[in-house]
Design goal:
Shape: elongated
CATH class of one domain: Alpha Beta
CATH superfamily of one domain: P-loop containing nucleotide triphosphate hydrolases
Distance between the termini: 154 Å
Oligomer: single chain
Strand content: 5-15%
């Protein structure tokens, strides 16, 4: 039995009820208004149907005075052989719930987690249940609708209910494949004839290919020989360049040695130059001092010469009897000295 139990909460006349089912045929009986149709309607609502037999909106199925209703189906997921019908859920029972609210919001819950209608449809497809098939869930007014269907539609509905619809699709596909294979037999014979002609053509092409392959082998051999000759030539060039490099390196070493010797000589010359500069400065200072002393001596000599001249002049004046003016000038000169 796919549905093991139905749990109703605030659904129509049910405040809370749990209805278990057993394997095989389960019969629900009771007087009018006892809730038989409500139980069937609850199962159809939980499976995702929007059909309501006695109202226009799903929110009208909520018990009077309540704001929310829940319908929970406990589905069988026990192993059938080595696999479960829904391998993704590793449990023997699957809890599928639909919640209805008075404000018109409805949603599904799968294993106490929110789920979409697509999730529920995939789950039911894994379990082989189509809730829209009236032979799966047949409400009170659907008997007349079923009788009005054509025999072909009734047959398809019965096959879908008992799980034979996939086999019908497989048979129809097999018939189409067989027809297509028979129609392709003649074309295959023509293809074989053209294949034989193509084979002869490709045999000739293969022989040409083998000849070309041999020529390419010879060409690769010659290219390798040419490459090795070029390698030997370049090795000789490398050796010659290496010898020239060594010569230039030796010459560079000699130049570096000469440069070091010249640098040492330059350093010695600079030391000598510094000494000469110091000596020249000392001599220059001595000469400057001598020049100053010379200038001073010349100044002194000039004064003495002037004094001598004045003395001589004074003597003449004394002798001539008028020494006054010259005597005063001589006195001043002597005082300056």
């Amino acid at each position: 039995m796919l549905i093991q139990e139905v749990i109703l909460e605030n659904f129509m006349s049910y405040e809370y009820a749990r209805v278990p089912f057993k394997p095989g045929v389960n019969v629900i009986c009771g007087p009018n208004g006892s809730g038989k149709s409500s139980l069937l309607l609850a199962i159809s609502v939980a499976l995702g149907q929007s059909y309501t037999e006695r109202s226009r909106k799903l929110s009208d199925l909520i018990r009077w005075g309540k704001d929310r209703a829940r319908v929970t189906l406990i589905l069988d997921n026990t192993r059938k052989g080595k696999r479960r019908p829904v391998p993704k859920i590793n449990k023997d029972q699957i809890f599928l719930t639909r919640v209805l609210r008075r404000d018109g919001k409805y949603w599904f819950e799968l294993e106490n987690r929110a789920a979409t209608k697509k999730d529920v449809e995939r789950l039911l497809a894994r379990l082989g249940v189509d809730p829209d098939n009236m032979l799966i869930i047949m409400h009170q007014n659907m008997v007349e609708q079923f009788t009005l269907l054509s025999p072909q539609e009734k047959l398809r509905m019965v096959e879908a209910a008992v799980g034979l619809e996939p086999y019908r699709r497989n048979v129809l596909q097999a018939q189409k494949k067989l027809t297509r294979i028979l129609s392709q037999e003649e074309s295959i014979n023509k293809l074989l004839e053209s294949a034989e002609q193509t084979l002869n053509y490709w045999r000739e092409q293969y022989e040409r290919y083998q000849e070309k392959k041999q020529l390419l082998t010879k060409r690769r051999f010659l290219e390798r020989e040419l490459a090795w000759a070029e390698v030997a030539k370049r090795e000789n060039i490398v050796k010659r360049l290496e010898a020239e490099r060594r010569k230039k390196k030796d010459l560079l070493n000699e130049i570096e040695i000469e440069t070091k010797v010249a640098a040492e000589h330059l350093q010695l010359g600079q030391g000598e130059l510094e000494k000469l500069k110091s000596e020249w400065k000392r001599l220059f200072d001595e000469r400057l001092s001598l020049e100053r002393e010379k200038a001073k001596s010349e100044s002194t000599i000039s004064i003495y010469k002037q004094l001598l001249e004045e003395t001589t002049t004074l003597e003449r004046e004394i002798r001539s009897g008028n020494p006054s003016a010259q005597t005063s000038g001589l006195t001043e000169n002597v005082e300056r000295q």
